[in-house]
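Hey, I was hoping to borrow your eyes for a little while. I'm sending you its amino acid sequence along with the backbone structure tokens. Take your time with it, there's no hurry, and the full record follows here.
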Amino acid sequence: MTRFLNHTLFIILTLVVTALVIDKVYTRAFNTSNPRNKVQFISQLRNTHIDYIFLGSSRVENHIDCEVVSRITGKSCINLGLQGSKTNDSAVFLQMLNNNNVSYKKVLFQLDYAVNFDAYSPQFKSFITPYLNTESVSDNIIIDLNNPFMYRLPFVRYAANDKLSGFREVILQLFDKPSRIDLSNGFEGKQGIGRDIKGNLPATAKASNRGVLWMKKLENNNLIFYTAPYCSQATNRDIFNKDLIAKYPEVISYIDIFDNTPQYYSDCGHLNITGAREFTAILTEDLLID
């Protein structure tokens, strides 16, 4: 019996030590390697100033070319749009920037139907996993993320998010494989011309959103809300836009700006590279020229 218990304890101890070592290796790889995604980029961005910061979903990442912004304004710019992002994700981005002593002149957030979702995107929760114990991710973020208790155990958080923060990604980090986009800009242009529609826009906008309130609390004076173009074929587009502006009167809407230039769309909700650069120029002239 004693021999069995000793053998069992040895196995348990070996597993714990192995988990601790792997956890340390993963954490070091993500925290010291060159950034491969925007969460990693922000976690390493410290004690600097960026004039214009754009936050939101793919309708920011695919729409705002910071080279255009910088060319027109002569100021620095970064696009922190994230595919599939929710408002809470962007609020955490802004909180992390503040935690890292990153100052800015203006923050611009693209507000659309995502206002109806009061949650984090699964992709974002996976990407932030390696940084949960860093100074970038403050206690209020940890509490709001509400991760499972088991994440406190060594390696569990990585095992649970293996697709985006697991073994393959660690290998890519260790071999210093670069990101597919230039993270110092953040823009990823879309190709093609089209107005394909996936689903419909909702008829109404939620009157209160936790992520929006969080961003306003962090930076109310220098925060600009705008809505990017959406093709006219989208069901409920104008109805939703009217309700969104009624509930969020600070929103500057560009939703119909390209109704007469369908060649600027890659699909109904996203502009192609040509459209994105034209939209970036229009928005910059309207909102960022003093």
Observations:
- The chain has one domain: 37-167+178-287.
- The beta strands are 48-55, 77-79, 102-110, 223-227, 252-253, 265-267, 270-271.
- Residues 61 and 252 are 18 Å apart (CA to CA).
